[in-house]
Write a structure and sequence with these properties.
The complex is a heterodimer of chains A (about 200) and B (about 240). With about 200 residues, chain A is mainly α. Chain A has one domain (about 5-90, about 130-200). Chain A has helices spanning about 5-45, 50-100, 110-160, 170-195. The longest helix of chain A has about 50 residues, at about 50-100. By secondary structure, chain B is an alpha/beta fold. Chain B has a single domain (about 1-235), classed as Metallo-beta-lactamase, Chain A, CATH 3.60.15. Helix content of chain B is about 25%, strand content about 25%. In chain B, the strands form two sheets. In chain B, strands 1-2-3-4-5-6-7 form a seven-stranded mixed sheet, covered by helices on one side. In chain B, strand 12 and strand 13 form a beta hairpin. In chain B, helix 6 (about 195-205) runs antiparallel to helix 7. Chain B is globular. Chain B starts with a strand and ends in a 7-residue tail after the last helix. The chains are: A mainly alpha (about 200), B alpha/beta (about 240). The interface of A and B includes residues 90, 100, 102, 111 and 114 of A. Bound molecules: fe (ii) ion. The site of fe (ii) ion (FE2) has 6 residues of chain B, from helix 2.
């Protein structure tokens, strides 16, 4: 297996593990949103500005979970393409070697068709890999946007929390945990994109 | 890859082995081909690493498109891990292999080669006008296992039965049977699990008229050495690890 192929496998595998972590954090945000909703309800008028924010956080968490679920499907497809590309490249190389080893054998020419077919299949796989990488990068970009939006909401939440009297601390804690979670998601997704960007437009 | 023609009649048998370029970590294997007018059957086509030299050698006897049949006595890597590569090279081929191993063998990635399952009681492979018999050899040593008998050429391709562990430059035929025994003993005692299975196989094989017994490793047996081998194997206690 060539180094390029190895790092391709590693990149695809690392995405899956980063995404698993993102999923856990997104679920945490959704929990924080439910928690915030309960507090805001108890706080009544004092947390009036906070209530729509909790709905928004919840929505964002749900969307992130859905997005990551779809990205996981794409990552699995990318893994399959990677396996196929490896198989086809290896076949092409071995077919060429066989034709070379056969040298002046009576039927060496009959290898021409398998060799050229293998080349076509290998090239198609490489194009497919690049297309799938571009698609996945786009999907990851969307998650990044969500994470950035969550951080803006967290900042707004802090302002609203400051007007919530005795609920200030509770609501601040909610804002804090959303901010932290969004930060983690942002970092993890960023690492996925870095791992893939090597294969983009190369 | 060394090629030895072992039968020439209405069709041919060719033995391939002793590949000089074989990585030293791999057990040496013998591959066989049966060539008829328009078709070619490869028996125990071999491991991934052997694919290119094997393909190159076959090109001396048949064009790629006439390789229509593959046979695997069992699903071991040294027998058939090259399947995924043959699958991408051959457009019109079948794999004859034990029915009970079908879903296991599919792990080698097989898209275009069709699986021709061999039922437990055996069957035949028809190649133009040649008919080969698939002789049950279960538990020798694989639990679903077949050997290939050609009544016309009087050749029995005996899979792992008859294996000898020796240097890769060894001659292709046994020359002194007595001297050969020690190269076979441990393999048969340790790899073959069942005295009962061994006895059933010997009874079946003694009824066949065999000129050449052709195993997947080591040397082939011809003439009286075939009977000597059967007698020796008959008396051997196998399944010694328990
Ligand atoms: Fe073997």
């Amino acid at each position: 297996m060539s180094n390029q192929t190895k790092s391709q496998f590693v990149a695809v595998a690392s995405i899956t593990s980063e995404l698993t972590a993102v999923m856990v954090v997104a679920k945490e945000i959704s929990l924080a949103a439910a928690n915030a909703k309960a507090i805001a309800f108890r706080a009544g008028d004092k947390a009036k500005g906070f209530q729509p924010i909790t709905d928004f956080i919840n929505e964002l968490a749900k969307e992130t979970i859905e997005l990551v679920t779809n990205i996981n499907v794409s990552a699995l497809l990318l893994y399959r393409v990677t396996v196929n590309e490896y198989r086809r490249t290896s076949a092409y190389n071995r077919f060429q070697l066989a034709a070379k080893l056969a040298d002046t054998a009576v039927y060496t020419a009959s290898m021409e068709v398998p060799v050229s077919n293998a080349k076509l299949r290998m090239d198609e796989c490489q194009r497919q890999f690049k297309r799938d990488v571009a698609l996945l990068l786009g999907q990851l970009e969307t998650v990044m946007h969500h994470a950035r939006a969550a951080r803006v909401i967290a900042a707004n939440s802090r302002i609203e929390a400051s007007q919530a009297g005795e609920y200030l601390q509770n609501l601040q804690a909610v804002a804090e945990s959303v901010d932290k979670a969004a930060h983690t998601i942002h970092d993890n997704v960023q690492r996925c994109r870095m791992a893939l960007s090597v294969y983009h437009n190369t | 890859m060394k090629m030895t023609k072992i039968y020439e009649g209405s069709h041919q048998w060719i033995m391939f082995g002793r590949d000089a370029g074989k990585p030293p970590k791999l057990i040496d294997t013998n591959q066989y081909a049966v060539r008829t007018a328009n078709r070619c059957l490869l028996l125990e086509p071999g491991g991934v690493e052997l694919f290119a030299p094997m393909m190159a050698a076959v090109l001396h006897i048949a064009p790629v498109e006439q390789i229509t049949d593959l046979f695997a006595s069992n699903p071991d890597p040294d027998v058939i891990s090259s399947l995924g590569l043959w699958d991408q090279a051959l457009t019109n081929a079948k794999l004859h292999a034990p029915a009970i191993w079908e879903e296991f063998l599919n792990h080698y990635s097989c898209d275009s080669i069709g699986y021709a399952p061999i039922a437990d009681n055996g069957g035949t492979i028809k190649l133009d006008s040649v008919e080969l018999q698939l002789i049950p050899a279960h538990y020798l040593y694989s639990s679903g296992n077949f050997h290939v008998y050609d009544p016309q050429a009087k050749i029995l391709m005996s899979g792992d039965v008859g294996t000898a562990l020796e240097t890769p430059d060894a001659p292709v035929f046994v020359e002194k049977f007595e001297a050969h025994i020690e190269k076979m003993r441990f393999f048969h005692q340790r790899w073959m699990p069942s005295n009962q299975a061994k006895r059933a196989w010997i009874e079946r094989v003694r009824n066949l008229d065999i000129d050449i017994l052709a195993p997947q490793h080591g040397r082939m047996f011809k003439g009286d050495d075939v009977k000597r081998f059967l007698d020796w194997f008959d008396a051997l206690q196998v399944g010694i690890a328990v």
